[in-house]
Design goal:
By secondary structure, the protein is α/β, with parallel strands linked by helices. The protein contains 21 helices and 13 strands. Strand 1, helix 3 (54-70) and strand 2 form a beta-alpha-beta unit. Helix 3 (54-70) runs antiparallel to helix 16, helix 16 packs parallel to helix 17 and helix 20 runs antiparallel to helix 21.
């Protein structure tokens, strides 16, 4: 199914690139250019596709309503499109048609694909056009969405990977609850002391995102050609020393029964941690409020920086996760500008503070921390500060920008399969990663063609 979908997506991309690469100058299509005074008085309509569900969806609906009420020039219609991958698949089908949105929220790993379609208007154009000031924005978050030094989309919901730990279990095991383990070796030793009876020392979701973070935390690139940012990647480095050492460390803890594998669904790991079945876990900072609220009265949740190797801890960096906002380039110029106006509203300190306070995502502008609404949340959840510090301390490099891969979802599946094969003892870590690297190289070759 993935293979047939992938081929179909390539066909859509190639057709869209040829037909719409010069879009963005259709001024005659805009209401203002129609010559009708009744149309000129109407707000410009912006269709916004998003993947915010649950509490995040409710928060976004309110933000959209507030924006529409705050002015009369633009009207935004927000439409939920399902999970990130579902939304991207729908976008690929809609490209070049009247059903294509003006603006879409795309998850981080869709970045290279969106650039390759040539179907988007880079936000860099709007920023330069009005000399929009980005000095207060999180440089680390912005760096992820830059390809060839051009900012293509505006970060909206940002998260980072962190270490969660049970402070009560730390005390019982004779570990300092105020000093979480920092390196891979320290994690391994702490897990040994914490594992007892039916409690495991640590759990790591079987998600390729964590392998990517292990690479970034050690300053290593995941693919060639500047991590796929200078030009499309053709080779995976997943089977190099960084990948082998990381997977071997993970497997050693599984084999010694100090770590447990709850599979690919990160929620299973989160539930096990909240239930006291595991003393530590790696997870997204976005899970913080859920974890703290669900463990209230049971134990205190501690949060530490994402682990790295001893040699890399002083030059530490992580990759930001989440999603960003993309403007489609075959919409009338006035509609693109209206979408940009909405993006600026979403990126403003007050709105980012509201968004962060209601979702747990990190704000994309540092000025949001001056807003009372966010200050109150950080006072209520002081662990939140660790993710903030990690974001600010993280060094920006080609490695920590994260890989930019066109068929990223398929690439991640090959990596996840390799991790599964190694952890379940079906293949050695090296053999599993070698096979993944080979499959990824073939995948990249097909995509690039």
């Amino acid at each position: 199914m993935k293979a047939s979908l992938f081929c179909g997506l390539l066909a859509v991309t190639m057709a869209r690139t040829t037909a719409c690469g010069s879009g963005g100058d259709k001024k005659s299509d805009s209401p203002a250019a129609s010559g009708s005074s009744s149309q000129a008085n109407k707000p410009v309509e912006v269709t916004f596709w998003h993947s915010a569900a649950g509490d995040a969806g409710k928060a976004l609906e309110q933000i959209v309503s507030d924006y529409n009420s705050s002015q009369t020039k633009v009207h935004v219609t927000a439409q939920f499109q399902g999970a990130y991958q579902d939304a991207l698949t729908k976008l690929k089908v809609s490209m070049g048609s009247k059903d294509e949105p003006s603006l879409i929220q795309v998850y981080d790993v869709g970045t290279r694909y969106m650039v390759d379609t040539k179907a988007v208007a880079p936000v860099q154009n709007f920023i330069e056009g009005e000399k929009f000031d980005l000095s207060s924005y999180e440089a680390k978050a912005l760096s992820y969405y830059k390809v060839n030094d051009k900012l293509y989309s505006m970060p909206f919901n940002t998260s980072v990977p962190v270490l969660y730990y049970n402070k009560t279990m730390f005390k019982d095991a004779g570990l300092d609850p105020e000093k979480p383990p920092r390196t891979f070796e320290e994690i391994k030793e702490a897990a040994k002391k914490l594992a007892k009876n039916d409690v495991y020392g640590i759990a790591i979701p079987l998600d390729a995102w964590y392998m990517e973070q292990f690479y970034a935390a050690q300053g290593a690139e995941l693919v060639n050609n500047g991590n796929g940012r200078n030009s499309p990647a053709t080779e995976s480095y997943i089977n190099k020393d960084t990948g082998l050492n990381s997977l071997s460390w993970w497997k050693e803890m599984i084999d010694s029964k100090t770590a447990f594998n709850y599979g690919r669904d990160g929620n299973q790991t989160l539930q096990a941690f909240n239930a006291g079945k595991v003393a530590m876990m790696l997870n997204s900072s976005g899970a913080l409020r859920t974890s703290v609220n669900n463990t209230k009265g049971k134990f205190e949740v501690g949060v530490g920086l994402f682990p790295t190797s001893e040699s890399a801890k002083d030059n530490f960096g992580i990759i930001t996760g989440g999603a960003s906002l993309w403007i489609m380039n075959d919409k009338p110029e006035e509609e693109q500008k209206a979408a940009w106006d909405f993006i600026k509203y979403l990126s403003s300190p007050k709105v980012q503070a509201k968004w962060s306070a209601n979702t747990g995502y990190l704000p994309t502008t540092k000025l949001a921390y001056d807003e009372k609404e966010l200050k109150d949340i950080i006072a209520q959840y002081p662990q939140f500060q660790v993710g903030v510090d990690e974001l600010h301390q993280s060094k920006i490099s080609v490695a920590t920008q994260g890989a930019a891969i066109g068929p990223f979802t398929e690439e991640r599946n090959f990596v996840a399969v390799a991790v599964e094969e190694a952890l379940y003892g079906k293949k050695s870590p090296q053999d599993a990663l070698n096979d993944a690297a080979k499959n990824i190289a073939e995948l990249l070759s097909k995509y690039n063609k």
